[in-house]
Design a protein that fits this description.
3 helices, flat
């Protein structure tokens, strides 16, 4: 069961990640350009924040 759930979670992540480039490619390109101009610390902070929100959501659901 765990491998199936993990695969489904990964598939859902890919679908969600693909929504913006599909629906609004110009907005996605501009956002991506801005991210490339950030320094490493800012990108790490965004990554850490995303991970913490994800862990909190998992804890909330389980």
């Amino acid at each position: 069961m765990a491998p199936t759930t993990l695969l489904l979670a990964f598939a859902l992540m890919l679908v969600i990640e693909g929504l913006l480039p599909f629906a609004a490619p110009r907005v996605w390109r501009e956002t991506f350009r801005r991210v490339t101009e950030m320094n490493d610390g800012q990108i790490r902070f965004i990554g850490l924040t995303s991970m913490l929100i994800g862990v909190a959501l998992i804890a909330l659901v389980l």
